[in-house]
Amino acid sequence: MSTAIKTLLSAPISARLGMGMVFITLLAALLAPVIAPYGETEIAADVWMPVSSDHWIGTDNLGRDLFSRLMYGARNTIAIAFLITALSFVIGVVLGFLAATVGGWTDQFLSRCVDILMAFPTLIFALMVLSVVGTSIPALVVVIALLDSTRVYRLSRAVAMDIEVMEFVEAARLRGEGLWWLMRHEILPNAMPPLVAEFGLRFCFVFLFIAALSFLGLGIQPPTADWGSMVRENSGAITFGIYTPLWPAGAIAFLTVGVNLIVDWFLHIASGLED
Fold it and tell me: How far apart are CA 121 and CA 104, in angstroms?
């Protein structure tokens, strides 16, 4: 624990800034019902009202308080993005480690299936599937997680293949350890640094991907607050010189930059360049 605290205290300014940005966003998501002055779907005033003491950053296209929608949108968008990223890592890491450890036809079959999925542009493939199966949150989670797991599979397989040929893995095999034991106790601990960094990058990608799908109308559906759909719903305000859609767009950029600053610092530590 003391080592982790020392590492955090020795973090550069950029990493501390990223932690602060992520902390602020998470705090807003967790305390949304307490912080938000209005309900998530409550009509509070007229359409696109300017900044005032009652509405700190104005209202949206239906007269809902924009600040409240941003707070609830943080909760919905971040929670779904984290769930998708976690699910994609479970699928990708397990299959990647399995392919690298077993090899042979198992590796060939899994790799060719991944190649087929990666041959399609991710956004177009997601739009096609979601337009068929529907745009419910479970469908959104499963579809994006499966598509994103292909990238995780590639990384975890490559990392596991480097670890799998090392002497301590061979020694564990000679002791008679099973496949799952090798994957969990020998390969996974040594593959954690690149996987943790990739988790941060994948979270950013999924977060932006959900926002893009919501902007196109196939992501998180109204009246649920979501930053991507908030940009789409209020995009017409720009025509009248009202900058309402810039608030959710800025929130998306704020969290993405914060996570990337932390990931850059973690990659720097994992690479050993500090030494």
Answer: 28
Domain contains 63: yes
Q: Is residue 2 part of a domain?
A: no
Q: Is the whole-model pTM more than 0.85?
A: yes
Number of domains in the chain: 1
Question: How many angstroms separate the CA atoms of 235 and 226, rounded?
Answer: 14
Closest Cα to residue 229, out of 117, 72, 115?
72
Is 5 domain-assigned?
Answer: no
Tell me the per-residue pLDDT of 28-71, one tens digit each, with 9 for 90 and over. Answer: 999 999 999 999 989 988 899 988 888 999 999 999 999 999 99
Q: How far, in Å, CA of 129 to CA of 144, rounded?
A: 10
Residue 37 belongs to some domain of the structure: yes
Task: Report which of 60, 66, 65, 74 is spatially closest to residue 31, judged by C-alpha positions.
Answer: 74
Residue 23 CB contacts under 8 Å (≥ 6 apart), including other chains: none
Whichever domain contains 119, its CATH number is 1.10.3720.10
Domain that holds residue 125: 14-271
Q: Which residues, 6+ apart, have CB-to-CB distance to 229 below 8 Å?
A: 214, 215, 217, 219, 220, 221, 222
